[in-house]
Amino acid sequence: ETSLKVTGVDLLKSQNSKQHHTDGYNIENLVVRRGQPFQVQVSLNRELRAADKLSLRFSIGENPMKNRGSLLSLKPEREDFNGWKISIDKNNGKECLLTVTSSPSAPVGKYNLHVKTGTNIYKPQNGVIYLLFNPWCEDDVVYMANEAEKKEYVLNDTGYIYVGSAYSIYDRPWNFGQFEEFVLDACMYLLDKSKLSLAERRDPANVSRAMSALVNANDDNGVVLGSWSGNYVGGTPPMDWIGSVTILQKYYKTKKPVRYGQCWVFAGVLNTVMRCLGVPSRCVSTFDSAHDTEGNLRVDIYLNEKGEKLNSLSFDSVWNFHVWNDVWMKRTDLPNGFDGWQAIDSTPQEQSQGRFQCGPCPVKAVREGDVYLPYDSKFVYAEVNADRVYWVVKKVNGKDKYFKVGTETQDIGKKISTKAVGQNRREDITREYKYPEGSKEERMSMQRAYSFIRPSGLMPRSGYASTVQTLGGNTQPLVPKEPVTKSGLHLEITNTEPLHPGNPLEMAITVKVSTPGYWTVNLTGSCQLQYYTGEVQANLGTIKETINIEGPSEMQIPLKIASDAYMKTLSSVEDEVLILVTAIAEVKETNDKLTKETSMRFQYPPITVQMPETAILYNDFTCAFIFKNKLNVTLENCKLLVEGLGIFKMTTFEQGDIMPGRIMKSEIICTPTRLGQKKIVAKLISDQIKGISTEKAITIT
């Protein structure tokens, strides 16, 4: 009797990958999701009989062993093995069709498939199968019921990251590109590098925490090296990236950290990695995000007597925006009630358990004030809930004295934003992170959080200030309310003309008093340029005025900065800078003090994209990028960066200098290689301007 031998194995890639929503991956191998059946066709040298022994063997890792669960030997119709099972669907002649169902809690990663018949072992070509998390499977902890949400948070390979300031939010298009060539392999490399055990690879909480550590280069030679230095020689400035694909491909090729990133780059790459592995994920931007290094829910801001913010004194800071990620999962390691979105953050800010990693922290724990829950919930809570305290530093008898000039309790953690499901617009998700300011629930959540984070009293906390006597030794947590003053004083800061580079900056501080009577208000105002991390780059000008006002009424005080006061700074830094206006008002009659700050971004002329609305697969079409310099300054050393996933690879056009009034036009011939709606992203970078970007969609049929 001839012994049973396998003559071929077909992994039926096209039918399996359609059913598993993995047909987008640009890879030769079969990619499937756990907990869901897939079919394998085995060809034999003769027909299969009842007495024959046939088994499929799936192995993972360096040294697969049955007792460790890294070698699975599956025999048809036998009870399952580690939650996996296999059955014979069709057995006619020499062809045998098998259905394999992996466990919905199987370790994710790369499995080798061998077929064993008796003592013969057959190794198929391309027998490496990639197994991912499965949001379509009800028994998987990443299960997501809503179809439109899965389409956005797992399958969408483009999106936006929201940046700017609370006063002027803008969307930065970003190509996640989780299906592009080598991206899945890069994620598998990171999984191996993470040294997670097989058991740990079952749980997306462990995997997402490990990925938050590996996307930054700190500790472990991870993907992106962060830099906020303003000088990016020897690498790509953070502003120049328009997606994750180039970064992950370069990292996979060199196995060395890619230079350089800032928070939106880390968040964009981590979003790609999580979606690629099958965990629903979204980029989340918080405006006025606290970086509270002492964990006392307070950020101290120091101003000089001109009202200008001082960098040198502060250990902690308020970032104009900070971007992290939310990933979706059931938290089997926590008490009930904390399933759903979990915050993870790969920007290297502070160490957690000895590594630069952050999360997963349940978003519900942040909202409820349950900040004892793992991981890093105190840190995330402070980012969206700290108080901002303003101090003026004055010289008294040659010594620095600190005077408190305001406390903002509702200022931090505003306009928390992500891209809306299925739409190109911003969705505000602040309510998922916080109860409405001033509500009963917010009060209770705050008291709960304060019972785990002991906030210190109102001491100024710079290194220089630690020896100074405080003004009023109040150590109670501040009751969160807008400071009510006897005069009903209120400040507003706005721009009165568009903020175009090369033009004067025309802004105004509006002083309002709501209480009847005659009031004398001393107003100090300053204008500075700062990075989004809150670090001041240049002082542009100040005003000091005493105004007499009869309440209730308001007065508008102009603040104007000539263009040559800031253009030099604008051209010399490689980051986008924001305009920071700070105002301090003191009412003489009542000694009321109030401080207000607003950050604004420069406004730029647009790039327009010209191309057809539809194109046919593999048929060329032309795409043109047009930019008219409507500013009063020459834009020097212009570069146009363009990328279209499934259409063309990242391309850079050197454009030289573009004089005022001049029009730049660049064309690219595109060959679409994938069906469906695709997007083209373009970005213009120059010495003067760092961030004009745009995108346009095209449907490939």
TrEMBL record:
Top enzyme category: transferase
Cofactor: Ca(2+)
Protein name in the entry: protein-glutamine gamma-glutamyltransferase
Residue ranges of every copy of the Transglutaminase-like domain listed in the record: 255-348
Classification via Pfam families: Transglut_C, Transglut_core, Transglut_N
Residue sites binding Ca(2+) per the record: 385, 387, 437, 442
Keyword annotations from UniProtKB, A to Z: Acyltransferase, Calcium, Metal-binding, Transferase
Enzyme nomenclature, EC number: 2.3.2.13
Taxonomic lineage from the root: Eukaryota, Metazoa, Chordata, Craniata, Vertebrata
Active-site feature positions: 263, 322, 345
Similarity comment: Belongs to the transglutaminase superfamily. Transglutaminase family.
GO molecular-function terms, A-Z: metal ion binding; protein-glutamine gamma-glutamyltransferase activity
Protein species of origin: Panurus biarmicus
Signal peptide annotation: none
Cofactor comment text: Binds 1 Ca(2+) ion per subunit.
Entries under Gene3D superfamilies matching the protein: Immunoglobulins (2.60.40.10), Transglutaminase-like (3.90.260.10)
